[in-house]
Amino acid sequence: MATVISQTAPAAAATAARKPFYRSLWGQVLLGVAIAIVLGYVAPDTAVAMRPLGDGFIRLITMVISLVIFCTVAAGIAGHG
User: Which residues lie closer than 8 Å to 79 by C-beta, 6 or more apart?
Assistant: First the structure.
């Protein structure tokens, strides 16, 4: 009995391993922006009521960014000496 060994092309394997766009960060950001635009158009009162969520998120991001910058500078100074 003969056995057939088939090999998949690297390009075919790469396309099969790709994640759908909604599983990637950029896809989730675009989806969130689109939902926010639709919500602001359809139900502006609800969108205004959700503003504290957005403001809190922006504040969290700025806190994280300042920590990342501080740790990068501290690690650079420690690694230099």
Answer: none
Compute the distance between CA of residue 9 and CA of residue 29 in angstroms, rounded to an integer. 32
* pTM > 0.70: no
Calculate mean pLDDT across residues 6-12. Answer: 59
**Span 25-39, average pLDDT:** 90
pLDDT of residue 18 exceeding 90? no
